[in-house]
């Protein structure tokens, strides 16, 4: 066994910059790494530099025509198609190189696990789960999640579970493996009738010969810690137990937080911390300890993402940060220098309560109805009882 967790990072990952006031601003990554270092979470950790994904690696998920369009877009103007040059996915200089480095970072993290150098690995710049085979979508140029999973399959990994807690449906990863029974994709997200991309209904359960390979838990706007965690625990561990993945891949978008400006769920940093700790437990229990963690969305750049993902790093490294820990003065001073008008958090907690009541059937709560719908759609396909709350 190698190191407990490999951290893939280089400041070159900040080059994935969609420009100006775009919501996916790389400052969130810089602030996360600064906060983790300031709190001592990364003490003694030698980060691993990402490499660029090669064309053959990218082409396991994306078309050659799309790769050519991404390469040429900065030189050919704005009418390039493939979802490029839009408000969500503006063209930027060296777009291919920056995007290939993010994808390569996720492969680099996966390599640490496959080679045995680490049981866990993380690429916070990753999690770009919306990109499709032939077009960009939702701030995502290359789908590093799918690229890393495809790379793992190519190395001989036979069963991979992908767990996505971003507020938006993990549509690109689901699409990439919808007919592949080797990959179980599980997404918890705001209900598709209320949020882009409008997919991720419980009835989306996988393609031909892969029934049950896609799992979708669609939650109503306003869902807070207790109900979100009830849904999470009512669906995910039973499926992982039945599927028994050899690697757990997680997309850890921080945009389900109550302060996120682009969505309407109600989690606190405390609830997010609890979700990461459950991932750690499930990786140990169901995936032989093999856990590949990726970043994702999150658009409260100063108040939420750095704290949430510092908790994620701490969880991966078994250096849990107590919720009532004070945010260090040096981090606050730096953040003020970047954004003097933002009210910054002073603690690693929002005062949230991650305790939840386990699911025991449908009540008058719409979240319990959502749990029922998902369990009835997919549990029988895995030999599980959709009614028995022990499953």
Global geometry: globular
According to CATH, what is the class? Alpha Beta
H and E order:
EHHHHEHEHEEHEHEHHH
Count, helices: 11
| Name of the CATH homologous superfamily | Histone deacetylase domain
Helix content: 25-40%
| Low-confidence region ranges | none
Rounded to the nearest angstrom, the distance between the terminal CA atoms is 32 Å
Pfam family, one: Hist_deacetyl
Keywords: Acetoin catabolism
Pathway: Ketone degradation; acetoin degradation
Family: Belongs to the histone deacetylase family.
Report on this structure.
By secondary structure, the chain is an alpha/beta fold. The chain starts with a strand and ends in a 13-residue tail after the last helix. The protein has a single domain (3-382), classed as 3-Layer(aba) Sandwich (Arginase, Chain A), CATH 3.40.800.20. The protein contains 11 helices and 7 strands. It has a 7-stranded parallel sheet with strand order 1-2-7-6-3-4-5, with helices on both faces. Helix 4 (95-114) packs across helix 5 and helix 8 runs parallel beside helix 9 (305-316).
